[in-house]
């Protein structure tokens, strides 16, 4: 019996060893196979790169596989990765070039693909000349391609209007934007920037120097580094004119000497609004002024600010100048041309000594205030966050680190002692909480320019949103009043109603000096690119009585706190609702 037990024990020991050996061998074989597959994935994704050329790996992304979220958001795809990106995302790959295991839905392998993709993201480089011929103007466009031209940022020829879209820029989008504003030429640069004007640039460049692919249109050229791909869009203007009409600004007393104030003029029998507007648009002026048979073009200035309008009856409220009495009054129209006296912006050349916050509750108009400050001062504003939509539309400070001190001020929605005391001073922007809550709810569910659907407003998300965000509106103001070192309180409603005086306060608070003409230019471009078109009226009241009672209590608390700090209290329209 003992002998039989000994044999059984010996057998079990051998079996245990054998099982251990087989398990270890299986794991090693699986690891080797996994490594081999990873190597093949990299080779498959990098077919466009030569065997001896290393793919760019940013230092901050390599290593332990940990990638900073701001880094990933800031990154732009290199041209060689554009082709491989589709292959990584599509569930079904080309069977002719890919082994069967590559289409496996194994979660671990998909994770390896994602890690490989994020690791090799890098800033986009200009498209190389070798690939230039393959993508030369493959898409069909309505305008006539005029060629590749040199672009000097200090002395731009196409300076009538400027647009950015660092994600969706296409040749057609740029052409239509310029045509809507009655420009003759559209020029694209850096794959994402659009410039409009009525004169061709002087210096012609080699065709291959325009080598940047359009961000929103593969296979199309959108200029290059300091190079413009220029199109003539005159063919589009007839249709575009119907879409974007000339705006009537009102009747004004005519200055004593119009020729001293307005740099361009035209005398034309039977002058019409269309004649004068087209003449001023070609001259790239935003204002068309009509007095009798005289047409004048120019900008709003200190001598003609458009702030003191006359009674419309004095001009007969007619869209021709024949009714203006005795030449004392004139009709003023806004042409489709953009006022470009305040569109140039840059980063601070030296680090700011004072770290200034532009603080507000979400939905209180922070983006609009940034637009006004940037155009008034000529310097970019920064952000505590990174919003790709804002960066794509020209807020280049979004991509700059918020503590770089290269921006004139930094957007933040943060509150709390630690976050507030990081700043030396702050502009505190306050808006009616009813309007702020609705604006932020729209942004959350429909983006910067959209509106949430009626179904979303009537869902459970809206009451939950109000219950949590209404207290945040109050605590945000209270915290900044308590911990802020040096504050300038601006009410959104006051800024909207008295833009020039309030903007002057903000600029002076930032220790900047600006000319009156530049402020008038900002007023002429006051809306920017992030204004919802009109107020979408709802056929129901989104706020219940319970919500109103809650919000009104917070309004009274904030109003009392402002007055306790010797600031102006909240505007009367805030309460009661």
UniProtKB/TrEMBL annotation:
SUPFAM superfamilies: P-loop containing nucleoside triphosphate hydrolases (SSF52540). PANTHER family: SIALATE:O-SULFOTRANSFERASE 1 (PTHR45964:SF8), WSCD FAMILY MEMBER CG9164 (PTHR45964). GO terms for molecular function: sulfotransferase activity. The keyword Repeat applies. It comes from the Eukaryota. Keywords: Repeat. InterPro entries: P-loop_NTPase (IPR027417), Sialate-O-sulfotransferase (IPR051589), Sulfotransferase_dom (IPR000863), WSC_carb-bd (IPR002889). It holds the Pfam family Sulfotransfer_1. Belongs to the WSCD family. Residues 142-234, 245-342 form the WSC domain. This is WSCD1 protein.
């Amino acid at each position: 019996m003992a002998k039989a037990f000994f044999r059984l024990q010996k057998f079990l020991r051998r079996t245990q060893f054998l099982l251990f050996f087989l398990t270890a061998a299986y794991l090693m074989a699986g690891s080797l196979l996994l490594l081999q597959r990873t190597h093949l994935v990299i080779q498959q994704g990098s077919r466009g790169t030569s065997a001896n050329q290393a793919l760019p790996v940013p230092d901050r992304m390599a290593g332990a596989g940990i990638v900073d979220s701001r880094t990933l958001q800031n990154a732009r795809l290199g041209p060689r990765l554009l082709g491989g990106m589709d292959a990584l995302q599509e569930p079904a790959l080309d069977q002719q070039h890919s082994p069967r295991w590559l289409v496996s839905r194994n979660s671990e392998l998909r994770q390896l693909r994602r890690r490989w993709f994020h690791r090799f993201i890098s800033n986009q480089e200009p498209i190389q000349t070798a690939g230039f011929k393959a993508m030369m103007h493959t898409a069909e466009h309505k305008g006539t391609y005029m060629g590749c031209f040199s672009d000097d940022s200090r002395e731009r020829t196409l300076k009538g209007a400027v647009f950015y879209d660092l994600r969706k820029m296409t040749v057609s989008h740029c052409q239509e934007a310029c045509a809507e504003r009655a420009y003759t030429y559209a020029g694209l640069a850096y794959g994402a920037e659009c410039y409009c004007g009525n004169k061709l640039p002087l210096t012609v460049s080699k065709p291959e120097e325009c080598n940047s692919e359009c961000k929103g249109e593969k296979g199309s050229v959108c200029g290059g580094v300091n190079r413009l791909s220029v199109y003539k869009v005159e063919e589009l203007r007839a249709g575009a004119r119907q879409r974007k009409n000339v705006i009537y600004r009102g009747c004004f007393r005519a200055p004593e000497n119009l020729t001293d104030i307005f740099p361009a003029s035209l005398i034309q029998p039977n002058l019409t609004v269309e004649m004068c507007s087209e003449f001023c648009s070609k001259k790239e002026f935003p204002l068309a002024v009509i007095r009798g048979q005289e047409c004048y073009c120019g900008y709003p200035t200190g001598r003609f600010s458009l702030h003191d309008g006359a009674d419309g009856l004095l001009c007969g409220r007619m869209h021709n100048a024949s009714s203006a009495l005795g030449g004392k009054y004139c009709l003023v129209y806004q042409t489709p041309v953009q006022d470009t006296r305040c569109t140039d912006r840059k980063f601070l050349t030296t680090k700011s000594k004072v770290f200034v916050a532009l603080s507000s509750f979400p939905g209180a108009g922070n983006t609009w205030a940034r637009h006004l400050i940037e155009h008034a001062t000529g310097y970019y504003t920064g952000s505590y966050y990174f919003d790709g939509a804002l960066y794509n539309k020209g807020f280049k400070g979004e991509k700059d680190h918020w503590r770089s001190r290269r921006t004139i001020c930094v957007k933040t929605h943060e509150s709390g002692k630690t976050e507030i005391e990081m700043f030396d001073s702050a502009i505190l922007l306050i808006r009616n909480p009813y309007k702020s809550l609705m604006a932020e709810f729209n942004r959350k569910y429909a983006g910067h320019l959209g509106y949430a659907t009626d179904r979303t407003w009537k869902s459970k998300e809206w009451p939950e949103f109000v219950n949590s965000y209404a207290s945040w509106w109050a605590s945000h103001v209270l915290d900044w009043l308590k911990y802020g070192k040096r504050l300038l309180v601006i009410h959104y409603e006051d800024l909207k109603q008295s833009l020039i005086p309030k903007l002057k306060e903000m600029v002076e608070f930032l220790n900047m000096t600006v000319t009156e003409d530049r402020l008038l230019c900002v007023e002429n471009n006051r809306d920017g690119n992030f204004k919802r078109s009109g107020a979408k009226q709802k056929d129901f009241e989104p706020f219940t009585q319970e919500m109103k009672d809650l919000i009104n209590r917070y309004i009274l608390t904030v109003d009392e706190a402002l007055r306790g700090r010797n600031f102006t209290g909240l505007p009367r329209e805030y309460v009661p609702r």
